[in-house]
Structures are given as C-alpha cells and as structure tokens.
Amino acid sequence: MSHATTNGAKAATAKRANPLGGLLTWADDRTGLAAVSKKQIRKVFPDHWSFMLGEIALWSFVVLLLTGTFLTLWFKPSMAEVVYDGSYDQLRGLHMSEAYASTLDISFDIRGGLLMRQMHHWSAMLFIAAMFVHMMRVFFTGAFRKPRELNYLIGLLLLLLGVIEGFAGYSLPDDLLSGTGLRIADGLVKATPVLGTYMSFFMFGGEFPGDVIIPRLYIVHVLLIPGILLALIGLHMLLLVYQKHTQWPGPGRTNNNVVGYPMLPVYAAKAGGFFFIVFGVTALMGGLLSINPVWRYGPYNPAEVTAGSQPDWYMGFAEGLLRIMPGWETHIFGFTISWNVMLPGQIIPVMFLAAMLAYPFIEAWITGDKREHHLLQRPRNAPTRTAFLVSLMTAYGMLWMAGGNDLLAVIFNLNLNYITYFMRVMVFVAPVVAFIVTRRWCISLQRQDEARLLHGYETGVIMRSPEGAYAEKHLPISGDEAYTLTARDRDPLLPAPTAADENGVAARHVRLHRLRARLSRAWFAHNVQKPTTTELEEARHHAEHELAVRDDGHQHVSGDYTGDYELDGHAADGHQFDGRHGVSGEELRQH
C-alpha cells in the first residue's frame, strides 16, 4: 500500500507577479501584438553569403546615422565669412565660410572628430557600394520577378537617393573640391533650356555660389533625404518579410517553402554580430585610411579649381559622360541649347534610370512569364539578362575611366586628346563586345551543366579502347547536384501570331505581338534547355552499361544514376575499366 508524500515542509504560497510581465500582458490585451510577433519571430530566412550584401547596406546606413548625429553637434551650416584661427597652421588667418571652419575644427580640435568624419565618409561609400552590388545580385538572379517588382523599384530609388545624399554631404564642407562639384551641378541646372538660369537663381539664392546653398543642402542631407530613406528601408523590409525571402534552388527548396534559420534566435544573433563586424571594419578604415582631407584643398573660391579634381567614385560615370561629350550646341530663337552638358548631365542619366525601372516589366512582357518566383536563377540560366547587365557594367567602367582621363594622361604619359577620342569609341564598342562574350560564356556553362547531367563528372581517369582511342571516364553526379541543376524552368518561345484566328476573325495588335515573338526568339533561341526525362533515363542506362564492367564475373556495380557507384563496397576509381586491376583500397577523386 502506497502513501502520498511531499518534500515540502510548508504550504505553497503565490509568488509576486512580475511587473514587466504584467505590463506586457496589459499591452497585449489592447494591441494583440503577441500573436503577430510569435509568428514573425519564428519566420525562416535562408542562409547564403550573397544575402549579406543587403545587410551591409543596412548596417552601413545605421553607422551613417550614428556618426552623422555626432557631426551635427559641431558642424555649422553657414556661408557667413569668418577668419580661421584654429589649430591648422597652414590655413590660419584665411577668410572662409563658417561651414569650412567648423569642418576644420571637427577634424583637429574636437576629440574623436576626425575619426567620426572619416567613418561617416567611409560608411557612405560602403552604403552606396553595397547597394550597387546588392542590386546587381538581384538583377543577375532574377529576384525582381513577380511578386517583387515593387521591392525592386524601391531598391533603385534607395540607390538613387543614396547617390544624391552622398553628393549633398560631400558638398557641405565648402572646400575647394566640393565647391568645384557644386559648380558642375550649377552648370547642369543652367543647361536646361529656357528655365535653366531661373532654376539656378532660386537654387543658389542668387548668382552662384550665393550664400544659402550650404544651409539648404544641410537640411536636405540631415532631414529630408534621411527621412525618405528610413521610410523606404522600412517599407523594403516589410515587403521582404511579407513576401518571404528568395532562396537558391536545391534539395527540399521549392517555390512554396523557405529553408533556413528562424529570425529568433539564430538569424537575429547572426545579424547583430554582422552589424558589429561592419561597424568595426568602418571604424578601422576611418582610423587608418585617410579620406577627403579638406584641409589640403583650402576654402572654396569660384575663381579657383583644384588640379586633378575627382568626385567620389559613385559620381565617376557622370564625370566621364561630361568629359567625353563633344562640344555640341544649338542656337534657336536666341536661346542656346548646350547638348554637351544637357545630354550627359540630364537626358542620358534619366533614360538609364527609366530603363532600369522598367526592365522587370519589359522582361515579363517579352517572356510572357506572369508566374510568382521565389527560387533564384543562376546567372548562366538567363544569358541575355546577364549579358545585358555586364554590358552596362562595362559602359559604366569605361565612363569611370573617362572621368579620370587627365590622371591617366599624367600617370601613363599619354596624350589627353587621344584618351578622350578612344573613350568616345569604346563606350559604344566595349559594351557590345562584353554582351556577346558574356552571352556565349553563359550558354557554354549551360552546355557544361547539360554534360554533367547526362554524362556525369570527369574522373581524371583516361582509358584506351581496343581500337587505340583514348577517352576520359565519367561518373554520375550526386542526387543533390542533379536536383540543383534541373531546378529551373524551360524557356518558352512565343509563337508568331497569325493575321486571323481559326474562325477568320482578324487578330488585334498583330505587329506588336509579332515584335514580341521576335524578341522572345532573340531572348531564348540559343539557350540550352535542361534535359528531358527521356534524355536523363537514356543517359542513366548508358552510364549503368558503361560502369557494369565485371572482373572474373564477380564484381558488380551497385547504386543508381544519381547516387555513388561502388564495386563490392569500394569507391569506383576508374581502374576497373581496364578489366585487369582490382579496386581494393582505392578511391576515386571526389567531385
């Protein structure tokens, strides 16, 4: 017979409620956030190094906000003239604006000021560079396809605003180099037909440089654009969570799931650690690598310009466009249209931006693909798109080099005019060559994937047939790799439209549909499609027949086409194909 026992000597008493828990319960009863948060904190994110590019941009923006807040405490956004009497001897006694004087004070007289200035500048560079590379990854992998067109547009706007924000911040110190950049901006504005001079007058508060442009740029830099950036980043992240993250194809990954780690605790811990890595690298660069040493340039004077002046790297393409543009002008009704400024400074950048914004919709129209896509494409499986972006990158590189034509002439002792003429030609020729080479390269890689699927991987074993011919033996790839290589759709070619349907009713927009069919053929005609099921089965039977080599009638092949082949428990290394050697203790080179 058993008796109930207890280890407690005293009666149980209720513990005092946790005040924080009570507060959270009170808030949850009125907001219902617990149910929503419970779902979101367990949301799964895929794990791949390329997804960190967007995180670098995000954490760089956080560093920008932190360092920018520090700088605003001492920077004076005023163009009022003062006499400098700070610590930097070479400029002491010179007349300059309060903006430039306060920048010198931050650099030399405020504890940690120069570190904060350089961290701020480096993080701005990193922010824009990370956005560039992140958008390239999105473009190469087709991550902009339905339903992510809106997020793609937001990303491009973030990149554009980041460039404008960088230019505004770059101009605030009012040094000779940044003043030269403002003079170029003034020229771009004045190139606008009829309205240009009025726009410049209102922008600068009078004749250039005026006395209000620095305070206005300051408000734009610290308030207007950062607010828009914060709103767009928040919307970008909300759409990312709502639509779920894209992922690379692989075993177990489909358009209907996400394979990865939950937001809490794994992903949040990794993201938090990555922030400190970005912050640490930025601090290291700010402490060891000098950038934008404004004290070397001196205060801005409209009558002077620095020799070999160069803008920040992200403005290099605009500088190159201006430098290689011929001096074309047109005089109409007493007005001068400066094509040499308006084309490279206004029309071409706007056309480029419009083309990039419209690209997802143009590709969807050409391909007729209206489905949702959550699996990324390997760049080789979209040869035309990949080649198109590489051609744009090539044009960007050519313009970047053209923006430094004077430095190239001095460093390599070349003729400046010859460099300019060469760049005028190569900016059109090089992108076309890059497009053709990249497209053929991608198609060659598709053929390589097809060969791995049908014939297996190269073992490095060279065999000689009885007839004396030499051939390399192949073994089938693993099932995981085969799944990854076949996890893509076949590219459909749109048929050419007919003038009338089977009932004799005339078709509408025949010319437009005919153009679409031609573009579809140009887009996909040369692509190598993944093998069909029949082709894979034939290749499997062929591989089994080739590998079924018996030694004295005892050894045999086990496994299937997508698995590992063994001979009596030993890894097949190819030597058994000669019919004379055993395989005991030998291993094949891993693929």
TrEMBL record:
GO terms for cellular component: plasma membrane. It is a multi-pass membrane protein. Residues 23-249 form the Cytochrome b/b6 N-terminal region profile domain. One of its GO terms (molecular function) is quinol-cytochrome-c reductase activity. The chain crosses the membrane at residues 49-75, 122-140, 152-172, 218-242, 271-291, 347-366, 387-412, 418-437. It is found in: Cell membrane. Residues 561-591 are annotated as: Disordered. Its main location: membrane. Its cofactor is heme. Keywords: Cell membrane, Electron transport, Heme, Iron, Membrane, Metal-binding, Respiratory chain, Translocase, Transmembrane, Transmembrane helix, Transport. Its EC number is 7.1.1.8. It holds the Pfam family Cytochrom_B_N_2. The keyword Heme applies. It catalyses: a quinol + 2 Fe(III)-[cytochrome c](out) = a quinone + 2 Fe(II)-[cytochrome c](out) + 2 H(+)(out). Residues 567-591 have a biased composition (Basic and acidic residues). GO terms for biological process: respiratory electron transport chain. InterPro entries: Cyt_b/b6_N, Cytb/b6-like_sf, Di-haem_cyt_TM. PROSITE patterns: CYTB_NTER. The keyword Transmembrane applies. This is Cytochrome bc1 complex cytochrome b subunit. It comes from Nocardioides iriomotensis.
